[in-house]
Specification:
Chain lengths: 290, 541
């Protein structure tokens, strides 16, 4: 650069400066350290090798394919297939067959149940709770009460197509709104319903209203057991709560909870695996409750 | 600040303030309700307040006659004050959202307190509020001294600073109201984006005009970095924010990009925000304040040239490494990966140049906490650029992506590098523009240094552990080919790291609070007029 400047030698490094100064700042004329040049070259060589081997440079409508001929779509599909094949060694057995026979296969269950636990945690626990303990608006899975029946086939059907899910084969369950009743009538029915778990079900206006409007779904005297999505009102199976106030709310607005359909998200084997896991939760929980 | 302006400048300022108030009124009246109306109201209040102040001060004493031969540091002083205010806002929001990840139920049931709205308050508050004000304030300081000239005019620095802070305020207040265009680090809505373009072009022109008036034959390297920051950020901001407003009277808009093109433009912007906002500008800061504070010449002029052109050329290509294993074509991913690796050497050239510059001044690093801030900044710059190139390699990315490792990497850069160099610069220039030898409390600087370093290390190490743990848990299969862990188990495993992160962040915030109080005490001790030093005599630093 400016050779006419008098070059100053820095006593620490022994290099001269470039001859410029900005507000006291000077720059040394230190040459490129050789290691920097080599390091830069190595990274460039790495890049060029990668460009030769991998898809790299766009060419209008095409791109350089790379000598390895890799395609990330194919690789993703192959990777997924490998994992599926690996899991399929035992999971395929879950696809068909009688649930009781499957459940009796101790080896299969020892392999399958830990996987089912993770499947449940990833897909079901957000609503039904980690141990199937349920929550406000979401049914308990670890007790003996089943709105659509305790039979594994019935449980599998619910998981497959869901409830009010919009799937064409979904289960439909709607508690209609009894907003046409007078407020007093609703209050009376609510008091009646809230007393049913304790066995208070005497005759009267409320009992008549119940028989006319509610029993067709909830069974005579709220006995339930029709397995059409309507709970028994004589035990703890009600999802939304059975205190008088909540029942009044239910009567006024109706209820139509949703469970999504899983048939497009999980394989048939996985759905059937979850079925056995959920049925197992109920048995374990049910025994504890007895 | 008004007493530094001439009568004609005060009149121009008055006109601009009235225009701002009218603009705000029009926005508020047109939008009637929602974020845009509130933002119009803010602009109107700011415009009216400035107009009243300027009108009242029209007859005040004029600045001294020798003004043109002195540096203009009042805008720098204001910018530093805003830097520290935004540090409190941005870091405070950061510590709060970090705590929310550990105590998720701590949020009251108010929409504006939700994690999703507060997180962009943290990022915008830190990147633009804290980082942006520091960059603008120091760039004014550095360009004048390395060019031996005064800023080209006295009104546009205020347009830049006030306009930029209005943008930041529009941004964070909009997010709290639920207004966002959902582009990371570019969440502000279309009218705020247009406003920022006006501010930024003003900034660019001011910077060029000041450089054109320089009394040095050559442009110092720090100004190259600042100029790259200003120019490229304008380009990125405009392209990424191209959008069609739903109506001119509402905040909502549609981006003109769609699908994977939108993702690519977004990360071309996003990564170059890291490159040109959080790196190039701060390298400018480093290249000025490190040699000044250490009293050492820059170790290698050639290395700084290699570093500048290497960073400018390679960085622009690497954004696609944010989209590995996505719908983005493989070839674009390969280019992002390879250019990220080639970027390493130019980055390390700057880090190495900074550390080699300290040769002959290590006793000062030991004794002077301010210089130690800059040294730590250079070390973390080297560490996080190495980490960045490493994480950009596809197979490594398959482990790290979507995990807290990314968060750790970003904070090793922002806490360890960006914030440290800002504090080093602040502790160098605040006493100088306040006409003092040292900060009001040198001991407080020492405390700040150790709080900042300890906080950064706790934060970064916790997030490295968190991210690698997450990545390994997500890809683990048991001997039967089933996933070993459910997702919730990986969330539960994060608890100790999230607590540590909150503690580290709180320590860093505590240090920043000490810095703000120390700066307040230092600035109050002297009138700003003492700051303006004659251009002719250049005292050695």
């Amino acid at each position: 650069m400016s050779d006419h400047h008098q070059r100053e030698i820095d006593p620490v490094t022994g290099y001269d400066t470039t001859g410029h100064e900005w507000n006291g700042i000077k720059e040394l004329n230190t040459p490129f350290p050789r290691i920097a040049i080599w390091a830069l070259l190595i990274t460039v060589v790495y890049a060029v090798i990668a460009w030769i081997l991998l898809p790299a440079w766009p060419l209008g409508r095409d791109y350089t394919r790379g000598l390895l001929g890799l395609n990330q779509g194919d690789m993703a599909v192959a990777g997924y297939r490998d994992i599926s094949d690996w899991r399929g060694e035992w999971l395929a057995k879950m696809e068909t067959g009688d649930f009781e026979v499957l459940r009796a296969d101790a080896d299969l269950m020892a392999t399958a149940m830990p996987a089912a636990e993770r499947l449940f945690a990833d897909n079901c626990a957000a609503c039904h709770g980690e141990t199937g303990q349920g929550g406000p608006g979401f049914p308990v899975l670890s007790d003996a009460h089943w709105l659509w029946g305790a039979d594994p086939e019935a449980i599998a059907e619910t998981i497959r197509f869901g409830i009010n899910s919009g799937h064409p084969d979904a289960r439909i369950a709607e508690m209609p709104a009894f907003d046409w009743m007078s407020r007093e009538e609703r209050a009376a029915v609510a008091r009646y319903v809230s007393g049913l778990p304790e066995g208070r079900d005497g005759a009267g206006v409320a009992a008549d209203l119940f028989a006319e409007n509610c029993a067709s779904c909830h069974g005579d005297g709220g006995e339930g057991g029709l397995e059409i999505g309507a709970p028994s009102l004589r035990d703890a199976a009600v999802i939304y709560g059975q205190d008088s106030r909540t029942v009044q709310e239910t009567l006024r607005g109706g209820r139509a909870g949703t469970m999504p359909a899983w048939t497009d998200r999980l394989s048939e084997a996985e759905i059937r695996l979850l079925t056995l896991y959920v049925a197992g939760l109920a048995e374990a929980g049910g025994e504890g409750a007895e | 600040m008004i007493n530094t302006l001439s009568l004609s400048e005060r009149r121009l300022g008055l006109v601009l303030s009235v225009l701002l108030a009218v603009l705000g009124l029009v926005m508020a009246a047109a939008a009637r309700h929602g974020a845009m109306a509130v933002h119009g109201g803010m602009a109107m209040v700011l415009g009216v307040a400035l107009a009243v102040k300027l009108a009242a001060a029209l007859d005040d004493p004029l600045p001294a006659a020798g003004r043109a031969s002195r540096y203009y540091d009042a805008p720098t002083r204001f910018g530093i004050v805003m830097t520290l205010i935004w540090a409190m806002i941005g870091m405070g929001a950061g510590v709060w959202v970090a705590a929310l990840l550990y105590w998720p139920e701590a949020t009251p049931l108010l929409p504006w307190t939700s994690f999703g709205r507060l997180r962009p308050v943290h990022t915008t508050g830190i990147i633009f509020g804290f980082g942006g004000n520091a960059l603008i304030a120091t760039s004014f300081f550095v360009v004048q001294r390395t060019s031996r000239t005064r800023l080209a005019d006295s009104v546009s620095p205020w347009v830049v600073l006030l306009g930029f802070n209005l943008f930041c305020l529009w941004g964070v207040s909009g997010y709290l109201m639920g207004s966002t265009q959902s582009k990371e680090y570019a969440e502000a809505e279309w009218y705020a984006d247009i406003w920022l373009v006006v501010v930024w072009v003003t900034y660019f022109i001011l910077y060029l005009r000041t450089l054109a008036r320089r009394h040095e034959p050559h442009i110092y390297v720090a100004n190259w970095y600042y100029l790259a920051f200003i120019l490229v950020v304008a380009m990125l901001h405009i392209v990424n924010n191209l959008a069609l407003p739903v109506r001119l009277t509402t905040a909502e808009s549609f981006p003109i990009w769609a699908g994977v093109q939108d993702a690519m433009v977004q990360w071309w912007y996003g990564h170059n925000a890291v490159a040109f906002f959080l790196t190039a500008g701060f390298l400018g800061m480093l290249y000025y304040f490190l040699p000044v504070r250490s009293g050492r010449p820059i170790w290698s002029y050639r290395l700084s040239i290699l570093s500048f052109w290497g960073i400018v050329f390679f960085y622009i290509w690497v954004g696609s490494h944010h989209l590995h294993y996505t719908a983005l074509p493989y070839w674009a991913q390969t280019l992002g990966m390879t250019f990220s690796v080639m970027l390493l050497v130019p980055s390390w050239a700057s880090a190495g140049n900074a550390i080699a510059t300290l040769n002959g001044a290590w006793h000062k690093v030991r004794d002077d906490a301010t210089l130690r801030f800059m040294f730590v900044a250079a070390v973390f710059y080297g560490l996080s650029t190495f980490e960045g190139s490493f994480l950009a390699i596809r197979p490594v990315n398959s482990l790290s992506h979507y995990t807290d490792w990314t968060v750790g990497h970003v904070h090793s850069g922002t806490l360890g590098w960006v914030a440290m160099i800002i504090f080093g610069a602040i502790y160098t220039l605040v006493p100088q523009i306040s006409g003092r030898e040292t900060m009001a409390s040198p001991r407080a600087v020492e405390w700040h240094f150790w709080l900042a370093v300890t906080g950064t290390l706790i934060y970064v190490v916790a997030m490295w552990n968190a991210g690698i743990t997450q990545g390994l848990m997500w890809r683990a299969y048991d001997e039967n080919g089933a996933l070993s862990y459910s997702f919730i188990e990986s969330v539960r495993a994060m608890a100790p790291y999230y607590l540590l992160r909150t503690i580290g962040g709180a320590m860093f915030l505590a240090g920043a609070v000490i810095c703000a109080l120390n700066c307040r005490a230092t600035m109050r001790a002297a009138p700003i007029e003492a700051a303006d030093r004659p251009l002719a005599t250049q005292p050695a630093e």
